[in-house]
């Protein structure tokens, strides 16, 4: 054998080996788009694909508002900021992506703590503290600003089209382990696990920190759909406008461990009552039955927060990006951009011998 034997001439060049993504929710699909825009070949493998409506496919059911999360690290804030930048550009480019700029009114039960959602004022437009008299007297303070809402019924099909037109490929297939993907794509070196709740059961992941958190929202058809209302405090209530579908989404509820696909009418009535108290000018006390429909989805939550990391496993790099709970849309494109950088690091380590 000559000195050059470590270089196998029959191997597929690194740049032509697809990056394999498990999961085609907002995290996997946004990551595919950002990778493709950077020239990487991409294949997505998933049981549910954009356009599907299974309750376990959280990305079909999100509100989906951009709201600054409280209690997160500076690096995590930056992921949200990047997401805002990318979604804003989509909104400015027209309605095709299903992203809209809306007014927001956030009412706080308590004075904001330093690690609260207040950091979001560096990201959103037109932030101002509201004056007493502009908001209900039972709140400590209130903020007005512009934010972004993504209509998943439009955004997911848009993303599918984007990914496919950039050369990405979706394969509908359920796997029981990441190992199956290694066998399906023996030449690939970089794998991304964006399987959401699936990471609980994949036999070579079995992340016990993952847990399902059921959400059930009311969709109210109305042409008054340009202002978001958010109650910040112990009570978890929001009114998220969906201008492109001419309605508002009323929530919320988080039910740990509940996997029921049935509408719970007590929850629906309670959400309407809370939303009416928060935004009486938009939500009537007793909306007409033909204006009301219901949304049910399982949030892929994780104790201690989401995973976003890189591991070397034999001659492969496995990137994990799951456990986004109730914030997958607000983190999506920031996570996707971070994953592009992690894939570039993996590429560098494979190419520079
Ligand atoms: C009612 C409700 C309201 C919400 N509101 C908001 C909001 O206002 N703002 C916000 O940011 N977020 C919101 N969310 C949260 C958001 O929907 C999720 O965080 C996000 O959709 C998670 O995306 P994901 O891609 O990680 O997971 P998912 O969308 O669940 O996708 C997981 C993917 O992995 C695939 N998969 C899993 N296991 C396997 C396997 N073994 N084999 C093959 N494929 C597999 C699935 O088929 C799917 O394609 C809300 C969620 C709900 C339910």
From TrEMBL:
Binding site for FAD: 175
Keywords recorded for this protein, A-Z: FAD, Flavoprotein, Oxidoreductase
Organism: Penicillium concentricum
Binding positions (D-dopa): 238, 299, 326
Sequence similarity: Belongs to the DAMOX/DASOX family.
Domain FAD dependent oxidoreductase, first and last residues per copy: 19-341
Name of the protein in question: FAD dependent oxidoreductase domain-containing protein
Cofactor: FAD
Signal peptide annotation: none
Keyword Transmembrane helix: no
Highest taxon listed in the record's lineage: Eukaryota
Residues spanning the membrane: none
GO cellular component terms, A-Z: cytoplasm
Molecular function GO terms recorded: D-amino-acid oxidase activity; FAD binding
GO biological process: D-amino acid catabolic process
A Pfam family per the record: DAO
Entries under InterPro entries matching the protein: DAO, FAD-dep_OxRdtase
């Amino acid at each position: 054998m000559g000195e050059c034997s470590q270089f196998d001439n029959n191997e597929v060049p690194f740049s032509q080996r697809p990056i394999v993504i498990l999961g085609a929710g907002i995290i996997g699909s946004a990551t595919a788009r950002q990778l493709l825009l950077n020239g990487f070949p991409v294949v997505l493998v998933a049981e549910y694909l954009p356009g599907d409506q299974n309750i376990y496919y959280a990305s079909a059911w999100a509100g989906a508002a951009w709201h600054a999360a409280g209690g997160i690290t500076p690096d995590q804030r930056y992921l949200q900021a990047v997401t805002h930048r990318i979604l804003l550009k989509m909104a400015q480019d027209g309605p095709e992506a299903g992203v809209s700029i809306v007014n927001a009114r956030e009412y706080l039960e308590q004075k904001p703590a330093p690690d609260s959602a207040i950091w979001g004022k560096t990201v959103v437009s037109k932030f101002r503290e509201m004056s007493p008299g502009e908001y209900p007297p039972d709140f400590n303070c209130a903020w007005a600003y512009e934010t972004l809402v993504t209509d998943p019924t439009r955004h997911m099909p848009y993303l599918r089209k984007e990914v496919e037109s950039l050369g990405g490929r979706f394969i509908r297939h359920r796997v029981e382990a990441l190992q199956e993907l290694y066998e399906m794509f023996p030449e690939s070196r970089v794998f991304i696990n964006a399987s959401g709740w699936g990471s609980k059961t994949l036999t070579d992941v079995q992340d016990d920190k993952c847990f399902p958190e059921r959400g059930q929202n009311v969709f109210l058809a109305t042409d008054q759909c340009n202002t978001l209302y958010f109650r910040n405090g112990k009570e978890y209530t929001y009114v998220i406008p969906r201008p492109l579908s001419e309605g508002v989404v009323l929530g919320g509820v988080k039910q740990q461990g509940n996997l029921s696909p049935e509408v719970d009418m007590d929850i629906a009535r309670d959400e309407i009552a809370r939303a009416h108290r928060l935004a009486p000018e938009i939500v009537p006390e007793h909306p007409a039955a033909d204006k009301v429909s219901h949304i049910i989805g399982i949030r892929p939550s994780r104790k201690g927060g989401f995973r976003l990391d890189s591991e070397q496993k034999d001659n492969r790099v496995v990137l994990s990006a799951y456990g986004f709970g109730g914030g997958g849309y607000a983190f999506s494109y920031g996570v996707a951009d971070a994953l592009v950088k992690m894939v570039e690091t993996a590429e560098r380590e494979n190419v520079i011998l």
